[in-house]
Design goal:
Immunoglobulin-like; four-stranded antiparallel beta sheet; 11 strands
């Protein structure tokens, strides 16, 4: 009986030690331009100068289809059919535009990120939180 309990405890310990490394995602926010440079005119160019960058720090491509980015006000961007290559980044721009492998567009006609402070949350298709990036009133951009 003692050997069985010891074996169970060793197995549990190995799971607990491995869990934090497995829980950390290779896909994370890396930078946010939360205040569009210049005057906030609401033009397409100004809206698209506000963006957040997501980077895949892993060694394998990751399918992000259905993942979401959310702000504190409840705005939600849902990734279209999209795969982010290993070591690659994609910028998600606030305004409308054509999506590419390096730039996606929220399609909003209004600014998303609050210049005085906000929080971006990256979630999987199943709704699990992968990463968060927070900022306060600052220079208009920040590494995450």
């Amino acid at each position: 009986m003692k050997k069985q309990i010891a074996a169970v405890l060793i197995a549990l310990a190995s799971v607990l030690v491995a869990a934090p490394a497995e829980a950390a995602s290779s896909v994370r926010f890396s930078f946010v331009q939360y205040d569009s440079p210049g005057k906030d005119t609401g033009s397409r160019a100004s809206l698209n100068a506000e963006w957040i960058r997501v980077t895949n720090h892993g060694t394998r491509a990751r399918a992000l289809t259905g993942w979401t980015i959310r702000d504190t006000a409840g705005h939600v961007f849902r990734f279209p059919r999209f795969t982010l290559g290993a070591g690659r980044s994609v910028r998600v721009h606030t305004g409308p535009g054509a999506n590419t492998a390096t730039d996606l567009h929220w399609g909003s006609r209004a600014y998303i990120w609050n210049n005085t402070g906000d929080r971006a949350t990256l979630k999987t298709r199943a709704g699990g939180t992968v990463d968060m990036c927070r900022w306060g009133d600052g220079d208009g951009n920040q590494a995450c």
